[in-house]
TrEMBL record:
It comes from Radiobacillus deserti. The keyword Transmembrane applies. InterPro entries: Cystatin_sf, TseB-like_dom. The chain crosses the membrane at residues 16-36. Keywords: Membrane, Transmembrane, Transmembrane helix. Pfam families: TseB (PF17881). This is Cell wall elongation regulator TseB-like domain-containing protein. SUPFAM superfamilies: Cystatin/monellin. It comes from the Bacteria. Residues 49-93 form the Cell wall elongation regulator TseB-like domain.
Amino acid sequence: MIKQYLPSTVPSWVKWTPVIILFLFLIMLGFGISIYNHTMDNKRDGFEQSSEIAMEQTALVSVDQVERYHGEEYYHVVTGTTEDGEKGFAFVPQGDQQKPVRLILEKNIMNENEMKNQWKKSCSSCSFISMNLGINGDTYLWEIKYIDEQDRYVFDYYNAMNGEKFGNYRLRQSLY
């Protein structure tokens, strides 16, 4: 006698549930990737134009990098080199086209590594995040971001000419 098996007695909705869940997951993943790409494009919006402005209005002949700096005013900081091969930083104002583009050469400010080493001496147990150049009025600043020993997100600002502390912001984490 041959044994015969019964056909599956699983309801059809149970068969379709994993397919629907997978389909919804793929839609959400695609939507998340789309939002991320759109946000990153907005973040880099105007970098190409700022690079061109920096090369037209300053001594920079090539551009290596463009970053954003939000202090009292919003700037694109264009890092590049001059014809003499010197590294320079052009500050291209955003929003107010009447302000001039400023250029400072690396040799005229405190070196990034020197500034970072000075900071490390004052905060040895801190967790470094990033460092970039900024401007506040007529003062060039090094902005150092890190997590301090009390688990706060900190922005420290140092005068880029002499390394003196200019100010800071400390953001504590919320427990809620």
